[in-house]
Amino acid sequence: MGSLRLWRKLDRRWENLNSLTDAFNKILSFGTDTNININFDNVNISSGAPKLTKGCELTLKGTYTSAFEAFIIGSDDTFIIHNEADITTKSYVIGRSSAPESTVIFEQSGGTVGVSRWLFICMKMM
Questions:
Q1: Distance separating alpha carbons of residues 78 and 52, to the nearest angstrom
Q2: Other Cβ atoms closer than 10 A to 25
Q3: Which helix (H) or strand (E) holds 30?
Q4: pTM of the model
Q5: Is 48 in contact with 42 (CB distance < 8 Å)?
């Protein structure tokens, strides 16, 4: 995960991040009341999809590959994801089995999504 190493060099607040979940938790700790822009720099996840633990609005850009879900929803909150990234996953785009009351809005506004399975049938759509 090259971008995490770069963040660590730029800002000490990013030290001791061992996973993309840690990075998301750190980003969300700064506040979730605005749209958060995340630019993936060829991120490749080979084990354990990142879990979003707080409701948020994200705009995703760049390139992201996961051997699992792209993201796991980890709380019964509202999540709005504007996707402009190229995402490839071998499973669902979004898993939310641990948060069945969550609301997820996934807006594809650019980029591509290559997946084995789509979870939209199980998500609350607005």
A1: 11
A2: 17
A3: none
A4: 0.75
A5: no
